[in-house]
Structures are given as structure tokens and as C-alpha cells.
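Lecture notes, part 5. Sequence design as translation. It can be helpful to think of inverse folding as translation between two languages: the language of shapes and the language of residues. The source text, in C-alpha cells, appears below.
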């Protein structure tokens, strides 16, 4: 039985708690957060502590908190020579205090409080300084998913950057599309099939080969009509920047 302690009370911490709760091979012995909030409705309140100095012995301590707090919190953990990992996509393994063995247990997914996730579909990116620790992380991750990758801190930094483009920036574009539809009394749901097809398509062909639209075709008249129709300055700027980016990348093919 692998004994786990989770530090944090955000979305990642709550989703990990729920996922581990369903596994017979792991035991969540304790959770820490400053407010002492429960991570799950059925959680035993006695397993929550607001005092980091009361943390018990465990095989692995998973820090699922804001990036800026990882270094400080890891230095306060009252154990030595234990495996302490964080779940951040953009923070180096070196952020964890060296009094313990260090690692990274990064689930590459967007987590929201109101939506459950299927961990079997989520890739886990792992890193550790010692072979025995990477073996343990692989074992724990394999309980949740078959998509397990050993990724260095430098690789993970660039992977996180790529994730911002494909998730956070894309979601902002969804938001712009939603605003445009709402302003013109158009049901946003009309775009659902297009959104899903766009996302599903690039799982079968490379994004470069999936690109379509007026920028790729160098359809100057349509591009001008679109640009003239946008009254919001920010939206117009984004439209023009993305149009120029697509034209620049595929310029030799136009």
C-alpha cells in the first residue's frame, strides 16, 4: 500500500484526491491546506490538518498548490529524505527543497471545480532525481492512466507553453466567438460541431495539414470584410495578428 499525503486544496488537489480514493493500492493518509477545507464530501475531517508541522509519515508528498508557493511550502515539510513532488507544468524540479528527494507528478489537463475528468485519458509527465523514485511515480501514475511519460524540467517548461497555446489561448478565442454570437443574437451552440471537429481532426492529421480559412487561401476580400465588421479593438487586433501569422507560415503555399 502506497501512502500519500496531498498538500493543497485547489482543483488539482481535489481531482487527485478523488482519483486516488478509487484506487485500492494507495492510501491518502492525510491532507494539508491552510484553511482545513475538505477535498471531498466524504472525507474524514480528522485526515485534514491546517498545521504543516503535524504531517505524518508517507511514501510520497504531493504538492498541488500555486506555483509561487511551492518553494516555501516544500521547505516547511517536517520530514527529510522523503519523496516530495509538485504538480506544476512550468516550475522546475529544483523548486522543491533539497532536504527531501524531489520529483514532479504533472497531470497535463485543464481542471475545473465543476467538471469531473477521466484520468484514464490524462497524460502524466514524471520527473525524479533518483531511479527508485521514478519507478514509484510510474507505479502511482499507472494506477490512474496508461499515458505516462518521463519528461525533464526543460521539456516540461516548453510543453506547458504549448499547452497554453492549445488550451488557454484557444479557450479565449472560444470566448470571443461566444461574445460575437451573443452580440448578434446567434446561439453559440451552432458552433459546437465545428469546435469538436477542429479538435478531433488534429488527432488524426497534423495541424499544418488541417489548416483552412481565408488567411490560408489569402482571401483578401473576406479578411477585409471580417476586419471591418469587428468593432472591438482587442478582437480586431487578435484577428489581424492571427491572420498575419497564418499567412506568414503558409506564405510559400499561397
Amino acid at each position: 500500500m502506497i501512502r500519500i499525503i496531498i498538500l493543497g486544496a485547489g482543483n488539482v488537489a481535489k481531482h487527485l484526491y478523488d482519483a486516488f480514493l478509487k484506487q485500492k493500492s494507495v492510501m491518502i493518509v492525510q491532507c494539508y491546506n491552510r484553511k482545513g477545507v475538505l477535498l471531498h464530501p466524504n472525507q474524514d475531517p480528522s485526515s485534514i490538518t491546517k498545521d504543516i508541522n503535524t504531517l505524518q509519515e508517507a511514501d510520497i508528498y504531493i504538492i498541488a498548490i500555486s506555483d509561487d508557493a511551492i518553494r516555501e511550502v516544500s521547505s516547511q515539510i517536517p520530514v527529510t529524505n522523503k519523496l516530495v513532488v509538485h504538480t506544476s507544468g512550468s516550475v522546475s524540479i529544483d523548486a522543491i527543497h533539497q532536504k527531501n528527494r524531489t520529483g514532479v507528478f504533472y497531470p497535463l489537463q485543464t481542471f475545473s471545480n465543476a467538471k469531473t475528468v477521466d484520468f484514464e485519458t490524462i497524460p502524466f509527465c514524471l520527473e525524479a532525481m533518483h531511479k527508485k523514485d521514478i519507478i514509484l511515480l510510474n507505479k502511482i501514475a499507472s494506477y490512474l492512466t496508461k499515458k505516462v511519460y518521463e519528461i525533464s524540467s526543460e521539456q516540461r517548461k516548453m510543453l506547458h507553453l504549448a499547452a497554453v497555446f492549445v488550451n488557454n489561448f484557444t479557450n479565449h478565442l472560444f470566448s470571443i466567438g461566444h461574445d460575437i454570437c451573443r452580440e448578434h443574437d446567434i446561439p453559440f451552440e451552432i458552433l459546437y460541431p465545428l469546435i469538436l471537429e477542429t479538435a478531433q481532426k488534429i488527432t488524426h492529421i497534423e495541424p499544418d495539414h488541417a489548416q483552412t480559412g481565408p488567411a490560408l487561401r489569402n482571401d483578401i476580400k473576406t479578411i477585409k470584410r471580417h476586419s471591418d465588421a469587428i468593432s472591438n479593438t482587442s478582437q480586431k487586433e487578435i484577428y489581424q495578428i492571427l491572420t498575419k501569422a497564418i499567412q506568414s507560415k503558409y506564405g510559400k503555399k499561397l
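The translated text above is only one of many valid answers, since several sequences can fold into similar shapes. The two ends are 60 Å apart (CA to CA).
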